[in-house]
């Protein structure tokens, strides 16, 4: 791993950027594990993020999945370069209901200009995890930016 992408520096960079995300704060999402190429975002279900049937709204699920994939991509970018989501597709495969909703973003292929990332979203309840969504995203590198822009 290049010296500019040391794990400690990557985690500090991602946590600093995440702290500036208004939407994540509004949703009540928090940052979990961070490593080069991998980022976890956790959402605790509640009335503010639910839909009419009591499940976590697809918009909230999509938002944490997009951010997890974006931050995974950012974690592999050199200093001074950020990422911008240019496209994503999400498959919602089960209702998002549980004690915690966890989006785990991971880089599939990191490039100088384009990066492909995925996020798997799980509903966690009673120590068990169930896949509820799968997102695939294309991220564009942007110069002179330190964070994720969506």
Give a written overview of the molecule:
The model has no long low-confidence stretch (mean pLDDT 93). Strands 1-2-4-5-6-3-7 form a 7-stranded mixed beta sheet. With 150 residues, it is α+β, with helices and mostly antiparallel strands. The protein has one domain: Hotdog Thioesterase (Thiol Ester Dehydrase, Chain A, Roll). Helices cover 23% and strands 43% of the residues.
Secondary structure topology:
Elements: H1 7-18, H2 22-27, E1 30-35, E2 38-43, H3 58-74, E3 81-92, E4 100-109, E5 114-125, E6 128-143, E7 148-149
Parallel strand pairs: 3-7
Antiparallel strand pairs: 1-2, 2-4, 3-6, 4-5, 5-6
Q: Which strand order spans the largest sheet, edge to edge or round the barrel?
A: 1-2-4-5-6-3-7
Low-confidence stretches: none
Give the integer mean of the pLDDT values: 93
Overall geometry comes to globular
**Got a strand count?**
7
User: What is the radius of gyration?
Assistant: 15 Å
Helix content: 10-25%
Report the β-strand fraction as a percent range. Answer: 35-45%
Number of helices: 3
Name the CATH superfamily assignment. Hotdog Thioesterase
Task: Give the CATH level 1 class.
Answer: Alpha Beta
Task: Spell out the helices and strands N to C.
Answer: HHEEHEEEEE
Give the structural class: alpha+beta
Biggest sheet features? 7 strands, mixed
Kindly list the characteristics that best describe this protein:
seven-stranded mixed sheet, 3 helices, alpha+beta, globular
């Amino acid at each position: 791993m290049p010296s500019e992408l040391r794990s400690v520096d990557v985690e500090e960079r991602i946590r600093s950027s995440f702290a500036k995300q208004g939407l994540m704060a509004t949703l009540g999402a928090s940052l979990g594990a961070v490593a080069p190429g991998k980022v976890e975002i956790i959402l605790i279900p509640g009335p503010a993020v639910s839909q009419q049937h009591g499940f976590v709204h697809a918009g909230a699920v999509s938002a944490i999945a997009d951010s997890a994939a974006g931050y995974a991509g950012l974690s592999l970018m050199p200093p001074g370069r950020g990422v911008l989501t240019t496209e994503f597709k999400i498959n919602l495969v089960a209702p998002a209901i549980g004690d915690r909703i966890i989006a785990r973003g991971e880089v599939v292929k990191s490039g100088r200009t384009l990066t492909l990332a995925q996020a798997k979203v799980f509903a966690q309840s009673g120590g068990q995890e169930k896949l509820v969504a799968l997102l695939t995203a294309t991220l564009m590198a942007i110069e002179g930016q330190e964070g994720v822009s969506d």
